[in-house]
Amino acid sequence: MNKQFIQSNADLSAYSTYEIGGKAKYLAAPTTIEELTSVLEFAKEKELKPFWFGMGSNILFPDEPKEDMIFISLKELKETHIDEKGWFVSAGMPMSHLSLIGLASGTADFDFCFLLPGTVGAGIYMNAKYYNRQICDILDTAFYIDLNDPEFKVQTIHVDGCGYSYKNSIFMNNDWIIVGAYLKHPDFNALEQGIREVERLEQVVEYRNPSVLPNFYKYYTAMAETWAQDHEAEVPESFKSVIQDRGSKFHFDYPSCGSVFKNNYDFGEPMGKVVDRLNMRGTVHGGASISSWHGNMIVNQGNAKAEDIVHLVEQVKKSVNEAFDFIPEEELIIVEKK
Asked: What is the pLDDT of residue 208?
């Protein structure tokens, strides 16, 4: 097995925006679909359970990972091209990259992806959303591998068959690994120029591990500002509003997963306000706390363990159920420990 994309005893905390996680017996970081297929064949041979993820922005890894698991990071799977069928983007492409390509190609269709700290594959998986826009609005066809297929062939599904609703999809109910997608774009000639322009920006702006949230924030704000300076233009107001909104809630100041719980629209208030009504902001357990700035965020204050985050998650669920008679559903994916 090529050790470039298979590691032993890898530190999962380096692959998580929570900066939490113990050492995985096996971790793979394939750069192509062919390498990913090789990883899956290796997992089958060794009787390992694959767990795939993108940037690790919506995941809590365990302090003691199971030894029979192989963790597969797709964040190095970042190919993009235009062919006769449309615009293909691999699963590891950061969603924020889509916003820059949209900006450089003259469309606002992808502005909602700016500073969404996740990859295209993960966004397709859970129908990532920012206010009134979501991934299913820009998706045409998804490419995936069914882990139950002994040959691990790449299959496709049109957006109409994905069963999308609020942060829900067909992918969440099947053992499928999303490997890429055809995305919609209003002008493919402009898109080709936009892709080249973003490739140029990548050579200019310093890039560091985007799973560290301050790095992620600095990189994408710098990319937008550099584009504006080079074109004697302004950073779009839609980008500025995201910076203001997320910056005012300190989304990128501490390791976190962003929103921990899905909103319960039947209740009528977002989860941040529900937690506020219980005066739980600032609640601390071990090295973790409920954010002092946003009730639906639980942050790593610097030395948190997975069990600290889980304790606060359960505390919120219990308190909300006792006060308002419903149990909030986690948006955060908590990986089972040993």
From this structure: 87
Across the range 100-114, mean pLDDT stands at 97
Q: Which residues pair with 49 in a beta bridge?
A: 69
Catalytic residue among 13, 57, 211, 259: 259
State the Cα torsion 173-98-95-130 to the nearest 10°: -80
H or E segment at 188?
A: helix 188-204
Show the domains of the chain with their CATH numbers: 6-73 (3.30.43.10), 80-238 (3.30.465.10), 271-334 (3.90.78.10)
Residue 184 DSSP SS3: coil
Residue 99's Cβ-side half-sphere holds a number of Cα atoms within 13 Å equal to 27
pLDDT band (50, 70, 90) for residue 3: low
Provide the sign of the torsion angle of the four alpha carbons 18, 23, 29, 35, taken in this order.
negative
Catalytic site includes residue 64? no
| Residue 259 falls in the annotated catalytic set | yes
pLDDT above 90 (res 210): no
